[in-house]
């Protein structure tokens, strides 16, 4: 790919970009291609005459044409394929189309449809995107990073495919997730697409059906474990860090037996975080704070029950505890006692301590064993119920009605993705509580009207957090990503929910605000990094302008022959 002379912050086409490539090479480079949009001057300068149709089409007309095609597709998966094909042909147009139709298209390139795409990844595969680090290649990782043509990588999103959304172990099929997350980085926070790298770490898969699938694209071996697994991760982290020392590495959709360990092992050595733990913690706290503006209560007053006690649950629980402590000065243990977690064996209690994974222990309650959610709701009388179990329909009518019996405005967050794994739907939550639920879900649900009132379910998804945090840490070249950065991000997001939004029950800003939200989060994260001496650059006078100037705009920049 051509390395541009300009930096990653090209804005609305003022400077001409020197391009060395010619003819079809330009057209076949998705970062340079303009499709039918090359002006005459560029057709002459870059040897494009005759290689594209005669009329030069403006980008807005190209967007219109693309949307006609998107809407003509027969299924969501076809829409995904159409958009990914556009991604691979013309990145500027892909991002322009998405940015101008965020509410319609984010559910296609991200949850829920990306889940379908991952499930069938080998069957729908068309063209390479990102990098695959297979355990069989571990001794070559150092040279493999040299195969990637870009020097200025700012964000790497990596998965080992072991817990893809709530769909379980999808092995190498998991690549759809880093691709989707990085599209969100570009859309949400304006990272330049050139500076992003999706990665699939192929450690094998325990998904037998996939191993037997003739079109599966990963290694057909059981997952590596223990020391063998750790050595491959170490080789990967070292190789990436050596090639791109300033890059942020986001761990995504690792099963919880790896997620916590890897985060602890690397968070002080390299610039990295775990989105499912930390990003999810922040976005959920923000939504609860919005809900409490409606009920007029404090965070410390809440009794929170989690269905699910994995990575997301622990990340959210820790962030709520941090919020309670900051709000009221309550002690760590006292705050933890406001939180009850359930796993597949029932309530997590001290009696089970000997058999509990490390991450569940701090939230083990001194309680008699309670086997199911309804019993827990009856006993604990929660005000907040969070679903992070990947068990669809597990917020049953009986459970929700039981909660509403003691709680006038139950805060109900079924967060499992994709939609097919949600613990309940928006319509169910509103119906079973006569419209009183303060609801948000991990994947989007459409608005509904009840007794003449419009109710707009908000989306409690870490996409509101990670792009802004990521932009913040790479912009100021932070030396590490801290929990406080996520806490500040949560507070910033919560502060951006308007009264008009709350009036229709929406606990998060509309997705069309994502750039504004991410810019504000990035500024807040930078402020913190400068205040805590973690930033690697001198503080710009105007931090807000500094962040906004870094944000990629999907417009065609003029080219000149290099
Ligand atoms: N909305 C978001 O932003 C967001 C972020 C992260 C994760 N998630 C979703 O949350 C879900 C869980 O993610 P995770 O990373 O915590 O996974 P995880 O595997 O770490 O945790 C899942 C937990 O659910 C528990 N569980 C399984 N079956 C259960 C049952 N029948 N009853 C009670 N608990 C049960 C497991 O014991 C485990 O503790 C996934 O569906 C994921 O898509 C959503
Ligand atoms: O990917 C998402 O939509 C959110 C989250 O990271 C998840 O794993 O479900
Ligand atoms: Mg995830």
TrEMBL record:
What positions does the domain Malic enzyme NAD-binding occupy? 277-530
The lineage's top-level taxon is: Bacteria
UniProt-listed InterPro entries: Aminoacid_DH-like_N_sf, Malic_enzyme_CS, Malic_N_dom, Malic_N_dom_sf, Malic_NAD-bd, Malic_OxRdtase, NAD(P)-bd_dom_sf
- Positions bound to a divalent metal cation: 252-253, 276
Alphabetized SUPFAM superfamilies for the sequence: Aminoacid dehydrogenase-like, N-terminal domain, NAD(P)-binding Rossmann-fold domains
Q: What does the Swiss-Prot or TrEMBL cofactor note state? A: Divalent metal cations. Prefers magnesium or manganese.
Q: Which Pfam families match?
A: malic, Malic_M
UniProt-annotated binding residues for (S)-malate = 163, 417, 461
Per UniProt, the keywords (alphabetical) are: Metal-binding, Oxidoreductase
Sorted alphabetically, the Gene Ontology BP terms of this entry are: malate metabolic process
**Active-site positions on this chain:** 110, 181
SMART domains reported for this sequence: malic, Malic_M
Malic enzyme N-terminal domain boundaries: 87-267
Molecular function in Gene Ontology: malate dehydrogenase (decarboxylating) (NAD+) activity; metal ion binding; NAD binding
Q: Which residues form a coiled coil?
A: none
Family according to the record: Belongs to the malic enzymes family.
What's the protein name? Malic enzyme
Which organism encodes this protein? Thiocystis violascens (strain ATCC 17096 / DSM 198 / 6111)
